[in-house]
Design a protein that fits this description.
The protein is about 35% helix and about 25% strand. The protein has about 280 residues and is of the alpha/beta class. It has one domain: Alpha/Beta hydrolase fold, catalytic domain (Rossmann fold), CATH 3.40.50. The protein has 9 helices and 9 strands. Helix 2 packs parallel to helix 9.
Amino acid sequence: MEQVSTNRSHGGTQGVYTHQSAATGTPMTFSVFVPDHAPGAKLPVLWYLSGLTCTHANVTEKGEYRAACAKAGVIFIAPDTSPRGDDVPDDAGYDFGKGAGFYVDATREPWAAHFKMRSYIEQELPALVAEHFPVDMDRQGITGHSMGGHGALTIGLRNPDRFRSVSAFSPIVSPLNCPWGDKALTGYLGADKAAWREYDACALIEDGARLPDLLVDQGEGDNFLHEQLKTGLLVLACRKAGIPATIRMQPGYDHSYYFISSFMADHVAWHAERLKA
């Protein structure tokens, strides 16, 4: 692991790091904010998964999480959204290929060699972080935005023993039922939709996955809400399964980081409460 940069901010250290990933076969970059803490202390960690076209840098530069994380004593980690490099295949569209890994392990060629974002996020990066940072891996939360909200929900639902808290901003709640999901999951996994269900939050809940509770914020002015995000499907799935879900429709807010940063401190505090020792 190599340090790309480090900056003091809000009584903590914001770093950016790179390493060679075994899962993707490429260099991967991620950012970590570590609040100041007592020597030897282990801090809870909040993972943030970004959306389509993003890298680690979007939330790192615009997410406005550091003050809240410093106050709560929570480490904040933001990975990239896909493998990158000249040898990595890509697509002409913004919603598939580089910048659009969808947090799946691809099984179709030519994507299968590098697009292993599920394995990277669930296995490889946590092991690396545990080795190099003062994280308490028994106190993990996960959140994300849009495609990353889909990632946070599905990873949290598949790993309930690992994540004490799960939230999302403007998540894609059901890739089985939207154009973004149809394109990505067909491309990465093939046409058999039975293989898609482990990457669909609503399907996972229907199939028996559960969370102790859930926080979601969604802007009512989001131009992707009705065609792609379909928040109402998650409301219905949680209600049917008896999952206590706080799903807040925020009037006037769109899909941007102006929206995310407005409610980031709420999410950090919500996770911090559930990540107490």
